[in-house]
Amino acid sequence: MDKKTAVARFIQDYKDSYTSDIGEKTLELEKWDGRWKIISESWTPIQGSINQLPESDTRTTPAEFNAPVPKEEAEPDGRSGPKTTGIAVKDIQFRLSPEEESVIIEMTPYTVPAVFSLNGDSPRVVIDIRGVYDWIGKSVLPIEGRFIRGIRTHLHHKIGKLRIVLDLHPPGNYKISRIAHPTVSKYMLSISTPD
Question: Any idea which fold 86-192 has?
Answer without folding.
Answer: Immunoglobulin-like (2.60.40)
